[in-house]
Specification:
2 copies of one chain form a homodimer.
Chain A lengths: L1 E5 L3 H12 L3 E6 L2 H6 L11 H7 L4 E4 H7 L2 E4 L6 H8 L1 H4 L3 E4 L4 E2 L7 E2 L9 H8 L4 E5 L5 H5 L11 E5 L2 H14 L6 E3 L5 H6 L2 H11 L5 E5 L1
Parallel strand pairs in A: 1-2, 1-4, 2-3, 4-5, 5-8, 9-10
Antiparallel strand pairs in A: 6-7, 8-9
Chain lengths: 230, 230
């Protein structure tokens, strides 16, 4: 499948590598291609400069947000939550219309110190997932994978034999089925993919971030997740 | 130990029964004792009238919020989150000063329909646990048990061999140790009691409610919890 990834950070890169490994055609999008390739610095998390990553992952196409969104039949929003709307607007309504958009982003507000809170207006009674769905009504937004670190997203078997939970929400059942199929390619088991209903489910999964961040602060690793015990 | 329970709903009752069974002296508090005993109706969740429950649990003392708070060396807030501050103010600052207060309540807002959201002003960058700690600075507030149904609070072994998580937060380490000991009496294993730091941890555990409510809506039972997989 042709897949577009919006965002060249750690999340976008790990998804791009894995999707290529799985045999998909992938293009990754950035605001300004030449600026991104000219940047020699590691990112704030110590990840290599994009151009070094891209040299080692040359099967991944590179384009502007617009070119990237136009490329795929499925689009993944892997931008920083605070910039997602801007990036997706640059990607363009017509390039997203009719497509499934997997939204992995979290509306984190780093302005008040660490750990971040959720952005005002995008928490409790609203969410980033809903904000994106509202802004792009012809796009089928599916919220998933936003409750874990990016390594686990594409490799659930990294911990606990892969037996832990990933939530899915969205208004379109066919879109959710398509996303579920892709998640299974990553190694997710059907019984651990919990459909929590329409896109208002994003309020719930984005609200997992505060406890996720607290736990990460205590156990000093992001390589963890929660398993549903019943 | 002499333990006070503020709130005569399902949570307060199940805690009272269990604590008596464990050999503690327990008093349960209500706003108006004669009104509570005069009420013959089941509650909104179908639980029996308080007086029927109390007849079957006669070892549990009954008093006003004030009398109850004065009784115990440890106090448990088992009121509805929206009423907690009012109830605790009636219980009285002097009856709570110097004591450990276990806060189990969640600031749920049922006014916007189901599932409830969190109350405005008590979410994301604030929490009920902090609000209580701010209102009663001489009291040692410990937030715990608020991320599960009340049956599980006192009987973790009901599911998954008891192997699932319960978070603890609070500003006073000695108070947290005392609470941890009590939780172990309920059957909680030390390794599943995760101390997430000071009382700002209440922001994180109260934020678990949205996903908890979504999951309950999907699996149609409250008899579930999450296990930390790492």
């Amino acid at each position: 499948m042709k897949i577009s990834i919006i965002g060249t950070g750690a999340v976008g890169r790990i998804l791009a590598s894995k999707l290529v490994e799985l045999g998909h055609e992938v293009k990754i999008g950035t605001r300004n291609v030449s600026d991104t390739l000219a940047n020699n610095a590691k990112d704030t998390y110590g990840n290599p400069a994009f151009k070094d990553w891209h040299a080692a992952n040359s099967k991944v196409g590179l384009g502007t947000f617009t070119e990237t969104a136009a490329f795929g039949e499925l689009v993944i929003n892997a931008t920083n939550g605070g910039n997602s709307l801007t990036a997706l607007k640059l990607a363009g309504d017509k390039n997203l219309a009719g497509k499934v958009l997997i939204d992995i982003a979290n509306p984190l507000d780093f302005s008040k110190g660490m750990p971040p809170s959720l952005l005002q207006g995008l928490n409790n009674t609203h969410s980033l997932g809903e904000e994106i769905q509202d802004a792009f009504p012809k796009t089928k937004v599916v919220k998933t994978l936003n409750t874990m670190s990016c390594g686990l997203m594409v490799n659930p078997n990294m911990i606990g034999g892969g037996d832990h939970i990933n939530f899915i929400s969205g208004n379109d059942n066919e879109a959710k089925s398509k996303v579920r199929k892709l998640l299974k390619e990553f190694g997710w088991r059907d019984e651990n993919l919990l459909d929590i209903g329409d896109i208002t489910g994003a309020r719930a999964t984005e609200s997992v971030l505060p406890i996720w961040l607290k736990v990460m602060g205590v156990i000093k690793t992001g390589a963890f997740n929660f398993k549903l015990v019943k």
